[in-house]
Amino acid sequence: MTKFVVTPASETQRAAWLGGELPAVEKVRPGLWSIPVPIPINPLRYVLVYALELPDGVAIIDAGWNTDEAFGALCAGLAIAGYEITDVKGVLVTHIHPDHYGLAGRIREVSGAWIALHPADAGLLRERYDDEFIESLVARERALLVRSGVPGETLDELAGASMMIRHMVSTALPDRLIEDGEQVGLAGWDLRAIWTPGHSPGHLCFVSPGRRLLFSGDHVLAKITPIVAVHPQSGPNPLADYLDSLAAVRRFEVDEVLPAHEYRFLELAERVDYVMAHHEERLAEIEKVVADTGGADCWTIATRLTWSRPWETIPAFMRRAANNETLAHLAWLEARGRVRHQAGDVDIWYSMES
Ligand SMILES: [Zn+2]
Ligand SMILES: [Zn+2]
User: Fold this and answer.
1) How far is the CA of 350 from the centre of ligand 1 (A)?
2) Helices then strands (H, E): number in the chain?
3) CA-CA distance, 98 to 198, in Å (whole number)?
4) Residue 1 has what pLDDT?
């Protein structure tokens, strides 16, 4: 596969990303700002919050984690743009992951801003972040890992792997639910929501046809591909959703893609084509490993794939993601009749020939 490298829209932003620094607050266009907000314990290091100027304040796309540092960085960034946190009128959240949604409630508390989410993600909030539901979610994750063939000694470590970050999210239910194709209705902006399930069931992108911009959240990024995984809150075939969602944004003629991480860049269609080809390649690799094993559980298959580093050195929460990503590819292959599984205490995956 020929590597396609995007053209950065801001050379200084790209240099900051590569240099391990927090990029500067930038004016992207008249009335539009990019504000990097640091996120803890995460190799992505920051989320890019976009501030859209309105006649009476600003709306922001995504928020950051609920930490004092993030809140301070957002306030300082808004100040550079000429605003205070109390000027925020609305928070458009691309999806419910803590780096995007975690700080939304605190912003609403101080500013009275509305919070908007797609209904598919809004419906997952309480189960994900409320104490009374969390045990059942962990139990379902554990059951999924057992069926995947995760060995007993690593099960507990993997099942609770993301629990330590929950306190960095304030569970704020949204004031607005935004559906696919909906005009967001911000004064001076022709912003339209595009439902792009896959990375998260209710992921939203926002397109401005007039300004030829796509706010892509985690859906399309410059260098990395977002995690698309089977988990207790995913649909049965999230990779099919994701690939459909890539096709849904590819058709937009935009000059610039404004993602939530790394740096903004120019070529939407080419980047989408490359990510699609990457998944095709991954699907072929997994299909071959399934055939070579003559029948194996998902965990065993995952350990035999090529990852960015040796399997033994991958930390627990990332090995869980790797397992669940492998499961998403297996589910896609099964839906296309390319592999099948035999359900049991542990599911065993076979190629169609065996
Ligand atoms: Zn995400
Ligand atoms: Zn993210």
Assistant:
1) 31
2) 12, 13
3) 17
4) 74
Section 309-314 average pLDDT: 92
pLDDT the model gives residue 162: 62
Dihedral angle sign, alpha carbons of residues 103, 109, 115, 119: positive
Q: At residue 106, what is the residue type?
A: R
Q: What is the pLDDT of residue 25?
A: 98
CA distance 236 to 229: 10
Tens of pLDDT along 70-95?
999 999 999 999 999 999 999 999 99
Spacing, Cα 132 to ligand 2 middle (Å): 26
Q: How far is the CA of 206 from the centre of ligand 2 (A)?
A: 15
Chain position carrying tokens 């391990």: 20
SS3 274: helix
- Is 53 in a helix, a strand, or coil? strand
State pLDDT tens for residues 18-64: 999 999 999 999 999 999 999 987 889 999 999 999 999 999 999 99
Count Cβ atoms below 10 Å from residue 24 Cβ, excluding itself.
14
What residue has token string 């984690």? 65
Inter-helix orientation angle 238-250/268-293, to 10°: 160
What local confidence, expressed as pLDDT, does residue 128 receive?
82
3-state secondary structure of 1: coil
Q: Report pTM.
A: 0.95
Centre of ligand 1 from the C-alpha of residue 260, in Å: 9
317-173-58-28 Cα dihedral, nearest 10 degrees: 20
Q: Which residue has the tokens 């993600």?
A: 121
**pLDDT at residue number 130:** 79
